[in-house]
Design brief:
With 345 residues, the protein is an alpha/beta fold. It is 34% helix and 25% strand. The protein is built from eleven helices and 14 strands. Helix 4 runs parallel beside helix 5, helix 4 crosses helix 10 and helix 10 packs across helix 11.
């Protein structure tokens, strides 16, 4: 049995010399190297920006969605959307552990896990798509995947449904980073506050900002705004299209008395919301771009163009302990858990 790079570079077919994530194509043969883990995959959680693009391109026809997902994996050896550049994550059962890893990791054959690294760098083979959940960004499959030696994972908890855990773990980095960024008394804007990651961020922001802070949720949809208000974790719910940068700035300015936001968290799954985020942020404020639809070129040059000195943070999906952190939010809030069980179970 061969020994592979801990970073998976031995799986890169095209172009040679790069890491698996930026690579165009990976070797997805399922004979493992001695430092890899083989997973029997049961479900994929497709990144929201990616799934939105796929549905748009196929007219939300299930057969066409299935065909496009299978085609991406067949061509690239991984689920790496060539339009959005994003992937998602998976859940499955450990089928085999390379001998070089035995005793070094807390896994055994038969353990149910969720990968905490992107599908855009994970060798994947889809044998069959058994069901597509169009409203949940989830696809049930029969297939296999490879986790590299450095690949992050979480054992699926016994007290949380696997579909719910899949949905939460896919965005676990967002609330964990929110906890780092938001301080007591801050004014926080969550763009996409009615969505999956946005709801977790709104909840965590309210905890961190406290009674002296202000949390503002943004969505273009009336039902999302009403739900944010009903849940009670926002002080204001703004029904604004975040692609209209001036409209968003004006709306945030109105409810903050012109002060704008200390922290803006962008969780949307569509393009062209960079300038809205920037204009809604006060000078020397912070923006966390969790959205994989973000153009960081547009953000950097756009901030320069409007004279905004703001700290812009790349939406790294990983933060130390983020998996358990996100799952614990469901354990501590019955209201949050009930909402997500309604949406994802």
């Amino acid at each position: 049995m061969k020994h592979g790079s801990p970073y998976g570079t031995h799986r890169v077919l095209e172009p040679l010399g790069v890491l698996p994530q930026p690579a165009w194509k990976l070797d997805n043969t399922m004979a493992i190297y001695d430092n890899e883990i083989l997973i029997d995959v049961s479900a994929l959680n497709i990144d929201s920006a990616s799934f939105t693009q796929i549905k748009s391109a196929t007219g939300s026809d299930e057969a066409a969605v299935a065909a496009m997902v299978k085609d991406i994996v067949a061509r690239r050896g991984k689920h790496h959307n060539p339009v959005t550049g994003s992937g998602g994550m998976l859940i499955g059962t450990v089928a085999q552990i390379g001998p070089a890893l035995l005793g070094k990791i807390d896994l055994k054959v038969g353990d149910r896990i969720a990968t905490l690294v992107s599908l855009s760098l994970t060798p994947l083979r889809i044998d069959e798509i058994t069901k597509i959940h169009m409203d949940k960004d989830q696809i049930e499959i029969k297939g296999r995947a490879i986790l590299f030696e450095t690949g992050l994972y979480a054992k699926l908890p016994a007290d949380i449904d696997k579909k719910l855990a899949l949905a939460i773990l896919d965005v676990a980095g967002a609330p964990a980073q929110t906890a780092r960024l938001v301080k007591e008394g801050d004014t926080v804007v969550v763009i996409g506050g009615g969505g999956k990651s946005g709801t977790l961020c709104v909840y965590e922001a309210k905890k961190r900002a406290g009674a002296g802070g202000c949390v503002i949720g943004v969505s273009p949809f009336a039902k999302d705004c009403q739900r944010m208000l009903d849940l009670g974790w926002v002080d204001h719910a703004l029904q604004v299209d975040a692609t209209d940068a001036l409209a968003l700035m004006d709306a945030v300015s109105k409810v903050t008395g012109g002060k704008l936001a200390d922290v803006v968290i962008n969780c949307v799954n569509i393009q062209n919301t960079e300038m809205g985020s920037i204009l809604a942020t006060k000078q020397h404020g912070k923006i966390y771009f969790f959205s994989m639809a973000t153009s960081f070129t547009a953000a950097a040059l756009g901030a320069e163009g409007v004279g905004k000195d703001v700290e812009m943070i790349v939406g790294n999906g990983y933060a130390t302990g983020h998996a358990e952190f996100a799952l614990n939010l469901l354990r501590e809030s019955a209201k949050l858990r009930a909402l997500f069980e309604q949406l994802y179970v």
